[in-house]
Amino acid sequence: MPADFNWAIGGEAGDGIDSTGKIFARALSRAGRHVFTSKDFASRIRGGYTAYKVRTSIDQVESTVDRLDVLIALTQRTVDENIDELHEGSVIIYDGERTSMADLEIPDGMVGMDVPLKSLAEEAGGAIMRNIVALGAACEVTDFPIEHLGSSLEKRFSDKGQSIVENNKTAAELGAEFVAENYEAESTEFEYELETTDEDYVLINGDEAIGMGALAAGCRFYSGYPITPATDVMEYLTGRLERYGGHVVQAEDELSAINMALGAARAGARSMTATSGPGIDLMAETFGLVAQSETPLVICDVMRSGPSTGMPTKQEQGDLNMALFGGHGEIPRFVVAPTTISEAFWKTVEAFNLAEKYQTPVYLIADLEMAVTEQTFPPEAFDMDDVEIDRGKIVDEDEIDEWLDDEGRFRAHAATEDGISPRALPGTTDGAHMSTGLEHNELGRRTEDTEIRVEQVQKRQRKVETAKEREDWSPREFGNPDSDNLVVSWGSNEGTIVEAMDLMDEDAPTSSSCRCRTCSRART
Amino acid sequence: MSSETRFIDFKSDKQPTWCPGCGDFGTMNGMMKALANTGNDPDNTFVVAGIGCSGKIGTYMHSYALHGVHGRALPVGTGVKMANPDLEVMVAGGDGDGYSIGSGHFIHAVRRNVDMSYVVMDNRIYGLTKGQASPTSREDFETSTTPDGPKQPPVNPLALALSAGGTFIAQSFASDSQRHAELVQEAIEHDGFGFVNVFSPCVTFNDTDTYDYFRDNLTDLAETDHDPSDRDAATDRIMDGNEYQGILYQNEDSVPYHEAHGVTEDMTDIPDGAPENATDLVREFY
């Protein structure tokens, strides 16, 4: 039996594809199976082709493959779009009572299962549940115990009332029964059987991991402007951040979002904004101010295809130069780029620590594939006991005296040996000071004095040098270190590369790859 | 400290570089007086300033302060106040900062009704860049970039604020120091977004909207039968083309943002590790 199984549901936007796919992914996860999902979606509310794909195995799965074993097709286009991934023996579940699907031709060698999804859903209580009927059918085909689907349905619908849950369970059962009665032979011959284990897995996507990382790291303020594919970070935090005494604000634009976050950070809150490329372009205006005023701020960029509006729902990793070099003048910064979803959690925690320890902006860079992919992890991958918080050089009222000049003024931008100045949060007695985007002296007052300019530029630069010494910037490495082949990558490609390496190793045991995980760089 | 705080405590040791006679001197003095009169001190006060002559105010005052980028002072003030509601937040800017490059933020800050004050030094000219038209310049006001005048109606900031749901809308004159300080003080004391447009004449580049012009044309609403709680009356005054000082409109039932949204906690204090119940966050994903 093949180690992995690949399943998809496809239809039009508005058909509930995403929701249905996630219900099935959760059912598998709850059954102790590993899951890796991918989405094909368009930037529209209704119409157009959209699909949700699930790859599942007993072992960890870290990428998608171009093979589909079971396809739930709500439209003809779903079959057409996936024809190259379907193979001999693949099962296509569809509703032949749907006018547009009545003439569906099942390609040679594949098995078509004509299931009256809508009629059975109506029998269970409403046509809206037709996708759930299809899920029940898929369970029967794969010998997957339907109670796990029931468990997932409970999680999804329990807040809508028990009768809704029960109706959905009935719909699933009707789908399973229909297949058992009408396609018994085909189901029995189907070569995939989805075994279960007793493991408990977490099913999470990249945006959620970033949001959860922010909560774990003590983030208290988030301001953002909705943009694909970063909106899920904001939606995740909304309501949850408030539970910890924080707040989420939907700003009028990205300019406002980053400035609100900057304000909250000046006040002393751990603060973050998240956006995608078009928003990063706007935020570039304030990025320099964040660095010049030495404000700790995490700016998350969930990359999508550019330039300009580009392809909002498609993957691209085109923002690296903007992150490393964007903005006029010399801007010391850190760029942190997780390569897996669980790492996105830890890198978010690290980003907050870096921001406060070095009083700099930190770009936290993810990409669309990481953001929208749901993947399973053992819960230990997010062990909250391992979260460490380092707020850097915050001085309180007892310590502030040593940072006052002869006239009792707080030296908020003191040119220290390691470049890091003391930080007095507003409200601290005797700490009143200003900070500015202008070049300034150690008190934060504007200056055009040549020597002070040089001193302050070098002081800010020194923070990056200090961080290079104190922090771990080593890349994640995989494979054989003696190999002649080196693969350098970043972002969500890691899983695919790891799996590709395994395949290469099967062919040629000496091959290996290696990859850079974290980029850290300052313009000098 | 607050009980003894005098307005001079809010003054830094940096001498302003504003032109002699600039309205911004009087505007700033009134702000400092109002802060002292409301029981604040430099260590619990956060001043946010934008760009332009007005933006320099953070340097000349003594408090916690951020001098930000052009037009974005209000979002910064919003973030400061939400993160630490105990701070007194005052945002200062000019007509270019607030009504041109920052006009979008102005409208939304008014709507949000965050409990802070916003003092705009309106001189109807771009001074620091040496004399170009501002959004409040008159239609026929000739400048280096508008030789025949802007030929566009000036922005009416009071009307913008009223239409956006403003809960405190006032106007003052930098030269009438007592009234100006009183109005800023009322803006500070208001439960919500206290907005004061200040006529702050530019003595170098604006020979139209001068001290004399305002002295001759300004009507103090306190000397009329204007009722600031009457929104229709405020609308009439704001749209009638005359120059007023005083409170145009105040909603006594104003509900500030932090009350409407329950944002009352100081966000600056966090635990040394993940929050105690953080594992629940992981469980949500089972």
TrEMBL record, chain A:
Region (Disordered): 457-487
Pfam families: POR, POR_N
One GO-annotated biological process of the protein: sulfur compound biosynthetic process
EC number: 1.2.7.3
Residue ranges constituting the Pyruvate/ketoisovalerate oxidoreductase catalytic domain according to the UniProt record: 13-177
GO terms, molecular function: 2-oxoglutarate synthase activity
Substrates-to-products reaction catalysed: 2 oxidized [2Fe-2S]-[ferredoxin] + 2-oxoglutarate + CoA = succinyl-CoA + 2 reduced [2Fe-2S]-[ferredoxin] + CO2 + H(+)
Enzyme class, broadest EC rank: oxidoreductase
PANTHER family: 2-OXOGLUTARATE OXIDOREDUCTASE SUBUNIT KORA, PYRUVATE-FLAVODOXIN OXIDOREDUCTASE-RELATED
UniProt protein name: 2-oxoglutarate synthase subunit KorA
Gene expressing this chain: korA_1
TrEMBL record, chain B:
InterPro entries in alphabetical order: 2-oxoacid:Fd_oxidoreductase (IPR051457), OFOB (IPR011896), PFO_beta_C (IPR032686), THDP-binding (IPR029061), TPP_enzyme_TPP-bd (IPR011766)
Domain Pyruvate ferredoxin oxidoreductase beta subunit C-terminal: 202-264
Entry EC number(s): 1.2.7.3
UniProt domain Thiamine pyrophosphate enzyme TPP-binding: residue ranges: 51-198
Cofactor: Mg(2+); thiamine diphosphate; [4Fe-4S] cluster
Annotated region (Disordered), positions in chain: 130-154
GO MF assignments: 2-oxoglutarate synthase activity; iron-sulfur cluster binding; metal ion binding; thiamine pyrophosphate binding
CDD domains: TPP_OGFOR
Pfam families assigned: PFO_beta_C (PF12367), TPP_enzyme_C (PF02775)
Any one biological process term the GO annotation gives: sulfur compound biosynthetic process
Entry keywords, A to Z: Iron, Iron-sulfur, Magnesium, Metal-binding, Oxidoreductase, Thiamine pyrophosphate
Alphabetical list of Gene3D superfamilies matching this protein: 3.40.50.970
Source organism superkingdom: Archaea
Annotated NCBIfam families: PorB_KorB (TIGR02177)
Protein name per the record: 2-oxoglutarate synthase subunit KorB
Taxonomic source organism: Halolamina pelagica
Lineage: Archaea, Methanobacteriati, Methanobacteriota, Stenosarchaea group, Halobacteria
